[in-house]
Specification:
This protein has about 100 residues and is mainly α. It is built from five helices and no strands. The protein has two domains: about 35 residues; about 45 residues. Helix 4 runs antiparallel to helix 5. It is flat and about 65 Å long.
């Protein structure tokens, strides 16, 4: 007899779990997104500043407002997820989250 706290010793089922492909795909997408959005931001800002002849500080401030507004919208919508009482409200809350 085995106790209920013992873990199976067969790890082959963990390696072949198809969900790991989804995890790897999400990791890849997030790495690309972070690279384009955060690491490449200085390149975009400099190019925009030179092309439009605008001060770099004003363009950086616009990006800061974007990130702050996105965080507020996303955080507010996730707070609303705990308050939903019907399915359509859940869809609306997540739609607002995507916009944020």
């Amino acid at each position: 007899m085995t106790s209920s706290t013992e873990q199976p010793t067969d790890t082959s089922s963990l390696r072949s779990f198809p969900g790991w492909r989804v995890v790897a795909g999400c990791l890849f997408v997030l790495l690309i997104n972070a690279g384009l959005a955060f690491s490449g931001l200085s390149v975009y800002l400099n190019a925009c500043s030179k092309e439009q002849d605008w001060p770099l500080s004003s363009i950086s401030f616009a990006v800061t407002i974007l990130f702050i507004a996105g965080a507020v919208i996303a955080g507010g919508s996730l707070a609303l997820v705990g308050q939903v009482t019907s399915q359509w409200q859940l869809y609306v809350a997540y739609a607002v989250f995507v916009i944020g």
